[in-house]
């Protein structure tokens, strides 16, 4: 029984944490938040140099050929640092889509530049408010020509290429690959409540595009792609949740009221313990999610949904109660509490909301029972 | 039970409504004016017509109205889009304190101009090191002749930048216990040595200020209560803060959630058909309706001539976290689109986001959730106080962690 | 604006509370809990003498002709006292059904004996686990002959007559009146988790019965009957919730640990404040429910569902946290905390569960919006 | 990460499994025997085979196994339906205390018979006036020659009625601070003056007892640790209570809720199709899975040779309220039928009800939710202690409210 990362993996975590403490201190996050760029290009370049974007890409395509434990570890650290870079779009989603569905030519063309970080990719799926389903998709691809509007596209303002979802049938979905720097693609930068991550609305008007792989993808395979991303996202959310808890604990030990540290009041200490419990539950579920992802287990759908729901709940709670613990100061622009509050909500809305994953979780439970029977 | 006015109440309401209809601000009146200028114009018009601060004595510009008449007036005035927030602190919280604790000269000097809207006031209580522990404030006032010299810093001061006067609580004796060494004053916000700096909030707005006092001189005649009585004076202000029965304000609520849930889909059906969505909306409605009818019960008490009790403090304690939760829920219904920032607060996402970003402040300002819960436990349920580490200790010997 | 009970009504409350303190002390509840009777017949007789069973019945039928404010007040006090009597079945449901749907003959025959308490009536609806709907009903009435099985029937072990729901169409329901003391009715007493309220399974094998009123009742009118009962039940639950909170507060003030009353620890005092808040929300909603019931308002469906959901939530929470506040003693048979815990759950399962009323609440909200539009 | 055994672990598991298969109790063995008699029979068989208390030194009947070997043995033994609860307190909690704090004579006298199941033990800590505040106990022990005379009352004593010996903590000096005046002893539960009375619980069961001590004499050789060291001795026992990694026990859980939700209907559809039902089940699964994998992580720590940390205390804190909530939810799914009392705990309602009635006890026994939360806050997060009203005060001067 070994349900823990290896020594090498734990060393990677230390290294990643140290790197981000240097390269992505709160001042860097704040610079993006206050500035008019959607991401920190310098940090992105350094992350590429570290090989993080290459983590799970096979060596044959210029990657490091490490696995998903390593990627989960990096995701956690990026979450702790609230890193203002397009990592989740490019790595968890677009790169994964290429590896899962791309043909050899596509992989050979794009994976090496994705691995190096030279190319930023994104994943364009939503087409407006509410849930996006196979039958709600209006974007079309025919004869390598893409038409439709995607909004919002996370990190869409800085991406070079996009994996775009297009209508196919009620049970399949067509993925395509499109270079965004062409005349028939128009981008409108969008702000979200997290000013430190750029978004865009992207209109495709007969844009040149190519099918990802050879044909439509079953809805089930498409959901598997989202499951994989959900595990990594859960680790990112978990990192954020733990950092918010640490920040709240530090403040509660140091801030005095009524002649004693506020952390000695049960109203505060039990609040913090409650955050800890949610984080601990999320962490254990994230471990299982990482195992299911790395080992290619059949229980991935259940493990991913469980990790995702737990991390959504833990990170939203930790971010909001961190502010509450800080009192008035927590509500100022000057304090960093806002980073976690903004990012936690942003990440909870990516890839489908809490209700979506609760539903998927029970579907997975039903399938597991059906298989066992 | 009867939701209708008594005959007396109905007569008063008719009179108020008629005056409002006759005297409302026209587009012409307000053209080109700032919100503050409009507010001052309207306040002056009410004052001239005898409808300003109607609960006050006539000598200060009021008409000695009953609490329920004040509520009726508020309900009628609310039907017109008039800005009022600039006067809430001065008229609702500081004026009663002036009436209770200052000299007749100060009353005559300040109250009519408060009623007429000519002068705007702010409240200078909180400090960086005294938030929930309000009495731990450190701003010093030292006597010099028949003046006092104030040095220190206040924070979370709403409206400091447009206020003419402020009510300040200071420490005049750090060698006695925390609550005993305080003294309250009226202070001229335009006096030399007063410096105001806006605080940028999470929302990007700046509703509050830091105010720095450097050798600011205040005449002894501006003192409220005796030297050392500042905590009792402050309690008068705070009590009036809690008694203020206001409209809940706008924000994400059940109608907004219903509206979004009818527009977006879940599994290709309107989200409002989804049972999980319904269960959440139902729970939010329970809270919203409960607070609304709680307010009706408080009004009934006023109508009977009773004062609403401390049980009214559940409003903010329930309302602020509910606002945070329902705003988050509305954004979830919109899925990724819910994150898109909108400055149009009338839009579906804009209203949800403004509420989501503003709610953390609401859970803190005017007493954190934790302080409000303590108040309910101690004052409503009669549970014993926490042990007090600072009790009976000279203020300058209380542990501060520094 | 007067959103408060009248002086007379408040006096009735004092009187009722005093009467129950005398006639229904905890020892009486305990006697039924420990004994083999499903209710306290002596208390029932005294409640009849007080005229409580007659409260809302018109004077023409031997009632007091008072209104629903008075009945709500009595319900609250019965809830506080955890009274072991078949009041809700006989008064909120069966009597109300007779008044709403009975013909003149039926009213003249039964209302006077229901008013006096001589006759105990119950309401037999459920037919096994899960929700009972118009289309799930299997009990039939034809030619004044009733066949089917009802389980569980609250207070079914002591009732003399029952209002029974029978299948009709998918949008209507047939109600009938049946005397339970006949050969073709067999009763099996059932225990529930609340040993202080008797239940039964009742089998009807061609039992003599008569239609209540003249024909089938629309599902909507049937729901209105449940709405009316839900308001009264909400008051009963609220009384229980407040009593449980009082008990917890009393204990927290008097029990010492670590040299001080446990009620001075924020872990306990904030728990109690949380109970208070839920109760206050439930009380305000119950007031509105009483107003909607008494005034015949169109907002009854919304008011009833809101009051019911709030009271379910408040009473379950108060009952369980009352035990928690008492620590080990709260978990003993000897302490009275168990009364509230058992009864709170029993009442929350009557008339449809929390989810059922949440759903009805939103339906009422939708109708309100539709009407306003 | 790897869910498989290391080669050494696998070899040990095979050995254990083989012995169990060869030595399991047959129907013939257990015919007509009580649960207690079966437990004793099985324990003796394990002892004779060298499989009792395998973590102990050989001299006391063990085999010096590692913590992970103990877990593996537990997993293998669990596959057989053998009663074990009678020995948990004695072997798991009291034996380590005896090893740490008693004389070699006592170790030799008591440990082998604990291992062989010949003697059963109970733990006498709690008292009516000392629940969460365990150290506030009042049972007196007074020296008389080379004996001690014990008077007082204990409560919540599991298995007192069938125990041969008990470990008791007493107050030997009420004039010093609470934690300082305590002394621990081993006590013969069959001695004159020991009287045991069962406590009937909410559930109707009687798992606990009150135990009254009237002039009960204990030799000084049965003392654990020094006079006045009782609190440290008790901490050894309590620490071992927390370290015990047990199966969560059976009760209402997600599979039960799923089963009910497939059988009942909502709006004439299977309840499992209802989105609100699904959201609740999903949340319960998050907790159940989280606790399960938390346990895996603790096992991994053991497997690496580390001790699981205090973060393990989330198990009961999360599990007990979850049990209460899911039991309530299962009953709700059944609607009115959910209230029907069933003694058949295998039935849908029976399991839900047993859990609903039992959960309040689980939230209290072995440390209330509030105490567990405090432990997490202080020991895991390092937050400061509450101010202590009883700190440094002689025990007989600590306020008690009486």
What is the topology, as strand order, of the major beta sheet of chain B?
1-4-5-8
Question: Could you say which structural class the secondary elements and strand pairing of chain A correspond to?
Answer: alpha+beta
Count of spatially separate domains of chain B: 3
Low confidence ranges of chain A: none
How many domains of chain A? The number is 2
Mean pLDDT of chain B: 92
Give the tally of β-strands of chain B. Answer: 10
The CATH topology label of the largest domain in chain B is Butyryl-CoA Dehydrogenase, subunit A, domain 2
Give the largest interface pair and sizes: A-B, 59 and 63 residues
Are there runs of chain B of 5+ residues with pLDDT below 50, and where? none
Question: Architecture of the largest domain in chain B, CATH level 2?
Answer: Beta Barrel
Question: At the third CATH level, what is the topology name of the largest domain in chain A?
Answer: Butyryl-Coa Dehydrogenase, subunit A, domain 1
Q: Main β-sheet of chain B, in a few words?
A: 4 strands, mixed
The averaged pLDDT of chain A comes out at: 96
Short description:
The complex is a heterotetramer, with 2 copies of chain A (373 residues) and 2 copies of chain B (402 residues). Chain A has 373 residues and is an alpha+beta fold. In chain A, 54% of the residues lie in helices and 15% in strands.
Secondary-structure topology with pairs:
The complex is a heterotetramer, with two copies of chain A (373 residues) and two copies of chain B (402 residues).
Chain A: H1 7-23, H2 26-34, H3 41-49, H4 68-81, H5 87-101, H6 104-116, E1 121-124, E2 140-142, E3 145-154, E4 161-166, E5 172-179, E6 185-190, E7 199-211, E8 217-218, H7 219-254, E9 256-257, E10 260-261, H8 266-295, H9 300-326, H10 337-349, H11 354-372
Parallel strand pairs in A: 1-4
Antiparallel strand pairs in A: 2-3, 3-7, 4-5, 5-7, 5-8, 6-7, 9-10
Helix pairs in contact in A: 1-4, 4-7, 5-6, 5-7, 7-8, 7-9, 7-10, 8-9, 9-10, 9-11
Chain B: H1 7-23, H2 27-30, H3 35-49, H4 67-77, H5 85-101, H6 104-115, E1 121-124, E2 140-144, E3 147-154, E4 165-171, E5 182-188, E6 194-199, E7 208-219, E8 223-224, H7 230-243, H8 254-263, E9 265-266, E10 269-270, H9 275-303, H10 314-334, H11 348-362, H12 369-380
Parallel strand pairs in B: 1-4
Antiparallel strand pairs in B: 2-3, 3-7, 4-5, 5-8, 6-7, 9-10
Helix pairs in contact in B: 1-4, 5-6, 5-7, 8-9, 8-10, 9-10, 10-11
């Amino acid at each position: 029984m070994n349900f823990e990362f290896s020594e090498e993996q734990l060393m990677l975590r230390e290294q990643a944490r140290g790197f981000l403490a240097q390269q992505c201190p709160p001042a860097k996050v704040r610079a993006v938040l206050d500035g008019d760029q959607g991401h920190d290009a310098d940090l992105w370049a350094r992350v590429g140099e570290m090989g993080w974007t290459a983590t799970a890409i096979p060596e044959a395509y210029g990657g490091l050929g490490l696995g998903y434990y390593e990627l989960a570890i990096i995701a956690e650290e990026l979450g702790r640092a609230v890193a203002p870079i397009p990592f989740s779009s490019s790595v968890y989603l677009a790169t994964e889509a290429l590896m899962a569905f791309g043909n050899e030519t596509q992989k050979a063309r794009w994976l090496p530049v994705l691995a190096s970080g030279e190319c930023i990719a994104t994943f364009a799926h939503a087409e407006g408010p509410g849930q996006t389903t196979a039958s709600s998709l209006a974007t079309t691809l025919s004869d390598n020509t893409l038409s439709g509007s995607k909004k919002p596209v996370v990190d869409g303002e800085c991406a070079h290429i996009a994996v775009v979802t297009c209508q196919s049938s009620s049970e399949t979905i067509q993925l395509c690959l499109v270079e965004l720097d062409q005349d028939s693609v128009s981008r409108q930068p969008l702000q979200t409540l997290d000013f430190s991550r750029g978004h865009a609305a992207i209109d495709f008007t007969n844009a040149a595009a190519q099918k990802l792989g050879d044909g439509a993808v079953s809805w089930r395979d498409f959901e598997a792609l989202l499951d994989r991303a959900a595990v990594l996202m859960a680790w990112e959310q978990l990192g954020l949740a733990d950092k918010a808890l640490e920040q709240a604990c530090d403040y509660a030990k140091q801030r005095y009221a009524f002649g004693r540290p506020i952390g000695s009041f049960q109203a505060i200490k039990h609040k913090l313990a409650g955050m800890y419990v949610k984080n601990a539950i999320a962490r254990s579920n994230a471990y299982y999610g990482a195992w299911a992802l790395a080992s290619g287990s059949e229980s991935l759908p259940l493990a991913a949904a469980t990790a995702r729901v737990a991390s959504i709940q833990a990170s939203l709670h930790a971010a909001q109660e961190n502010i509450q613990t800080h009192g008035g100061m927590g509500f100022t622009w000057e304090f960093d509490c806002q980073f976690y509050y903004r990012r936690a909500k942003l990440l909870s809305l990516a890839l489908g909301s809490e209700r979506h994953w609760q539903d998927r979780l029970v579907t997975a439970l039903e399938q597991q029972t059906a298989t066992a029977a | 039970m009867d939701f209708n006015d008594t005959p007396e109440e109905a007569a008063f309401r008719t009179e108020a409504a008629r005056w409002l209809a006759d005297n409302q601000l026209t587009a012409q009146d307000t053209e080109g004016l700032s919100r503050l200028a409009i507010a001052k114009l309207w306040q002056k018009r009410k004052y001239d017509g005898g409808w300003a601060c109607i609960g006050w004595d006539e000598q200060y510009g009021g008409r000695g109205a009953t609490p329920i008449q004040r509520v009726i007036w508020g309900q009628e005035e609310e039907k017109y889009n008039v800005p009022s927030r600039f006067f809430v602190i001065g008229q609702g919280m500081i004026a009663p304190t002036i009436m209770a604790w200052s000299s007749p000269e100060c009353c005559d000097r300040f109250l009519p101009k408060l009623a007429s809207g000519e002068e705007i006031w702010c409240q200078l209580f909180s400090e960086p090191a005294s938030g929930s522990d309000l009495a731990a404030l450190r701003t010093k006032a030292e006597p010099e002749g028949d003046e006092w010299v104030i040095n220190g810093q206040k924070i979370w001061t709403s409206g400091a930048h447009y206020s003419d006067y402020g009510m300040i609580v200071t420490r005049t004796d750090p060698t006695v216990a925390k609550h005993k060494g305080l003294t309250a004053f009226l202070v001229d916000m335009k006096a030399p040595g007063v410096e105001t700096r806006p605080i940028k909030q999470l929302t990007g707005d700046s509703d509050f200020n830091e105010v720095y006092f450097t050798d600011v001189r205040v005449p002894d005649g501006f003192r409220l209560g005796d030297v050392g009585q500042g905590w009792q004076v402050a309690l008068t202000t705070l009590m009036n803060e809690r008694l203020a029965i206001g409209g809940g304000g706008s924000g994400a609520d059940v109608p907004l959630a219903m509206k979004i849930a009818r527009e977006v889909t879940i599994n290709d059906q309107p989200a409002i058909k989804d049972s999980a969505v319904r269960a959440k909306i139902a729970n939010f409605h329970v809270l919203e309706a409960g607070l609304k009818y709680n307010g009706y019960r408080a009004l009934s008490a006023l109508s009977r001539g009773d004062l609403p009790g401390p049980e009214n403090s559940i409003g903010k304690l329930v309302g602020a976290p509910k606002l945070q939760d329902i705003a988050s829920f509305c954004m979830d219904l919109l899925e990724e689109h819910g994150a898109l920032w909108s400055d149009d607060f009338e839009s579906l996402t804009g209203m949800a986001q403004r509420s989501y970003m503003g709610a953390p402040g609401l859970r803190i300002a005017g007493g954190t959730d934790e302080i409000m819960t303590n108040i309910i436990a101690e004052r409503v349920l009669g549970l014993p106080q926490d042990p007090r580490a600072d009790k009976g200790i000279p203020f300058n010997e209380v542990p501060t962690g520094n």
